[in-house]
Amino acid sequence: MEILVCVKRVPDTSENEITVNKDGTDIEREDLVYSVNEWDNYAVEEAIRLRDKVGGSVTVVSLGPEDAEEVVRREMAMGADKGIHLMDAAFEASDGYGIATALKAEILKGSYDLVLTGAQADDGAGQVGGMLAAMLQWPFAALVNKVEVADDGTLKVGREIAGGNQEFSEIRLPCVLSIQTGINEPRYVGIRGIRKVASVEIPVHGAADLGLSLEAVGAAAARVKRLDYFLPELGEGAEILEGTEEEIIDKLIELLKSKGGIK
User: Fold this and answer.
1) Is residue 250 assigned to a domain?
2) Packing angle between helix 69-78 and helix 38-54, nearest 10 degrees?
3) What is the CATH number of the domain that holds 214?
4) What is the spatial distance between Cα 125 and Cα 63, in angstroms, rounded to a whole number?
């Protein structure tokens, strides 16, 4: 099975204090520590496990500036067989549609049975996987937390749905799956793995290599434009209810009535 996993380099929220810049046009990025997107890490681990069960290879691809090569090498050190870096000034300011457009072009250059993405990335939109599947006209499942390969070559996928319920579906290859955290436990990346891939040449593909015009990606093609970043205003804080259990219940009911929560 030939598997492609889309990965992204994002600010590491556990290592950074995220602040908005003075213009309100972006977050302050100068001193940020970056890492691979958490959801994508689970997707790579799942791809490696599938490859180890049924054979084939795992390729990771990342779209981004020069530093995005770091996450490609990191996931190769984790166990992916190959890496691809999509880098071009033309890709800058792409929205989700533009990113999916570039990824689709890369996918069509290869011969993949399965494409995995994380359920979402740093902007929280969770849109690239679904857009990619629609562009490819491939079946798609989101929030996948279980993948099994059936004897006939189809996949049995488990999805997390509303209310914490689990849904199982059969899906035919080729397909696109967006992977939820918790599907597995991503393996530790050791120094030996990092050294092993340190000198591996990673192909870099730009818009021209993918057969894309400058109008197909970047700001020119963006259907969604980010206008502003801001921090929500702080409220007055929480009100602590004191008294016996019965008194607290009575106070809570009165508060809910006064706020329109109940009648």
Assistant:
1) no
2) 40
3) 3.40.50.620
4) 17
The pLDDT of residue 7 is 97
Q: What is the pLDDT of residues 57-71, one digit of tens each?
A: 999 999 999 999 999
| Position 252 in a domain | no
Residue 82 half-sphere exposure toward CB, CA atoms < 13 A? 12
Range of the domain at 13: 2-221
Q: In this predicted model, what pLDDT tens digit does every residue of 28-44 receive, in sequence order?
A: 888 888 999 999 999 99
CA distance 221 to 206: 16
Whether residue 178 is contained in a domain is answered as: yes
Classify residue 113: in a domain, yes or no. yes
Q: How far apart are CA 185 and CA 187, in angstroms?
A: 6
Per the structure, how many domains does the chain have?
Answer: 1
Q: Which residues contact 116 (CB under 8 A, 6 or more apart)?
A: 3, 4, 5, 6, 43, 44, 46, 47, 176, 177, 178, 179
Strand, coil or helix: 250: helix
- Whether pLDDT at 89 is above 90: yes
Tell me the two tokens of residue 242.
Answer: 């004191």
pTM: 0.86
Task: Write down the pLDDT at residue 216.
Answer: 94
